[in-house]
Fold each of these.
Amino acid sequence: MRVFVLTGAGISAESGLGTFRDKGGIWARFDPMKLATPEAFAHDPNQVHAFYNARRANLLSAESNAAHRAIARLGAALTEHGGDLFLCTQNIDDLHERAESSRVVHMHGELLKARCLRCEVVIPWRDDLGVEVPCPSCAQAGGLRPHVVWFGEMPLEMDTICDALQRADLFVAIGTSGSVYPAAGFVTEARGNGIRTCEVNLEPSDNARQFDETHYGPASTAVPAWVE
Ligand code: BJW
């Protein structure tokens, strides 16, 4: 059995990382057009860096929760029985990795990495003060940007993701509002491929009617219950 799991901000909500579109969410407090577009970064890189530096500090003090651990157990169990879990996350946190999921595809990038605007090299970025820059252009002011995917940019690893979606026997969306493309279109694609679709979320998402099976509740209880 090949299972394609797509996760969103809701799976990390109980770890203390904010979601985007819930009441009081990140985009209710901050304007995405001023912080999460290439134009915003070109206009005011310091403001964009400050936003991501604060979220990086929050991430470093957070921990994975029972939902991340349940997904890791599912991956291990599928592998043991000759199946496969393709874990695709829209999240830029590293909580799936910390819960020991073996391979995670971060389609919207990673908060703990930076990318050089000129040479495109991607480097670890945990400590805002101690980034080791690999080339002179990376060292210049404004030379590094967060390795995240902003509005209008192409999400990462799309070929690998599309291939895994084609080969999957089951599609599961967890903790995502289903409002940002291309991820929001994966359920339609999965249905087009004739496979079963399942949603695990706090409440019905924008795409809820497209799922064959739905489970509603906080991820830390709903996901382990669905996995077991
Ligand atoms: C719980 C819970 C609990 C809560 N337990 N559940 C019109 C204008 C402009 C652009 C477009 C447009 N129409 C379409 C577009 C394209 C655009 C888009 O989709 N915009 C929509 C808003 C309309 N998409 C893009 O631009 C993407 N790129 C693209 O399309 O490229 C193609 C292309 C490029 C160039 C040329 C030509 C074509 C890129 C999208 C990048 C998204 N980036 C962000 C920021 C990343 C970095 C960061 O984190 O700062 O990614 S935005 C933000 O939204 C973040 C998330 O990954 C993404 C999805 O959010 P998610 O995860 O679904 O979170 P929420 O908050 O929305 O939902 C949380 C859910 O959890 C809710 O349902 C809750 O109920 C639930 N929940 N507590 C369980 N305890």
Amino acid sequence: MGSITLKNVRKAFGDVEVIPGVDLNIEDGEFVVFVGPSGCGKSTLLRLIAGLEDVTSGSIQIDGKDVTDAGPAKRGLAMVFQSYALYPHMSVRKNIAFPLKMAKMPEAEQEKRVAHAAKILNLDSYLERKPGQLSGGQRQRVAIGRAIVREPAAFLFDEPLSNLDAALRVNMRVEISELHNNLKTTMIYVTHDQVEAMTMADKIVVLRAGNVEQVGSPMELYSRPANKFVAGFIGSPN
Ligand code: ADP
Ligand code: MG
């Protein structure tokens, strides 16, 4: 579970067309990176998939089911926000359990899921701490834990590492890739960082002014860029 299909998805804010029309197929279990310069529409496209914005026209399917008019809660996807979105007054345990508590899940099931997420993320010994007592990397893992417990069909990341320092960013990249290997759940990862895209993706979607310039593996984009923009952006010699 976790295939996502966009058919001629268009988004305008008032008179301003931000996404002129995108067709895209994401397969179950893929690690897909949306990359492109600031303002090209990466966040908007992700928010359309999440259901946080309504499409102006076009359709979105998840696992073959049309969700174009469904709200975010009905889509079974989890958006991972940056670590500063944690509740500072709540323990790690409570932060991770928060979406389950909101969904009124039975406590025993909540505990089971939190324990599972904590194990995957190496947070077992930090569950009673407050976010302020954690390192930046641990805080980011708590933010990811909050997504894992929901057992989503796909994880959606919007530049989750942009407020971490360079060394930590490299570590977290590896951790998120390992998490994907471990869970094998579809992940869509938005970044403006070409290196992040090239090192993490199964499939890269290069965006420019709301248009998909090229979709391909890192190797395909590097060796056969569709145009000068892709070549320049990816840093390919062609
Ligand atoms: P990116 O994430 O690639 O930096 P965004 O998706 O945030 O780009 O933005 C794409 C374009 O859409 C920008 O020009 C931005 O100003 C515009 N935009 C985004 N959200 C809104 C909104 N709610 N209202 C009006 N314009 C918006
Ligand atoms: Mg953005």
